[in-house]
Amino acid sequence: MLIQLRDVSQRYGIKNVLSSCTLNIDRGQFVALVGPSGCGKSTLLRFILGTNQPTTGLVLLDGKAISGPTREVGIVYQHYSLYPFLTALDNVAFGLMLDRTSIPFRLFRPFAWRSLRQQYRAAASCMLDEFGLGHVLHSYPGELSGGQRQRVAIAQSLVMQPRVLLLDEPFGALDEATREELQRYLLQLYQKNVAAKQKGQPPPYTIVFVTHELNEAFYLADRVVGLSRYWRDGDVG
Ligand code: ADP
Ligand code: MG
Fold this sequence. Notes:
The protein is of the alpha/beta class. It has 7 helices and 11 strands.
């Protein structure tokens, strides 16, 4: 199991948000997490992301307790998290540059740094191309449509090759046509998993996405997990 939530509960003061939640997610699964607003979907994602720990219970990534955010888990939110002062290309390359090099390396090895920078930009350009954004590499977020920005945000996460990609209502702010277009991009990732498995290779993408649209959940996911607000007879979480 790649992700395991074992008997996870979250309380805020006297309020129970999640109660004894157990969930196992295998490598290569596309899991949709559905439930009414306020039932704890984003809270659950934050446990997997590692920014929060549950009040009780255990969250494991590949058998190890998650103790903080790492590059192994990426996230895309409803409202894009792009740097407005960087082009689409630089937004995607930026994470790679920060993650893979140190400040002394950048300062004292300018030639090696320049060659790596070119390498990272090439990887970013390739990723953007896959998301149909080859023609807007040098545009700034403000010049892109909402759907294009979300695709850049997904590319920005995927270029880091995370083991898990979390999507928190990623298409919530988009109109229907754009939403469908983005759903097709996610399904392409699913197809890559299928192709990898057919070749006997491990599926590259494991995705947990939150949506309150049941149609979207059934269309995109190979597994749908529902969170209810009623966590014990008569109690509303
Ligand atoms: P969802 O994503 O399903 O809409 P959330 O996980 O964001 O739900 O929140 C679940 C509940 O927990 C909400 O009622 C919210 O107000 C509450 N909550 C979330 N974070 C905090 C916090 N840091 N302190 C207190 N209450 C919180
Ligand atoms: Mg939420």
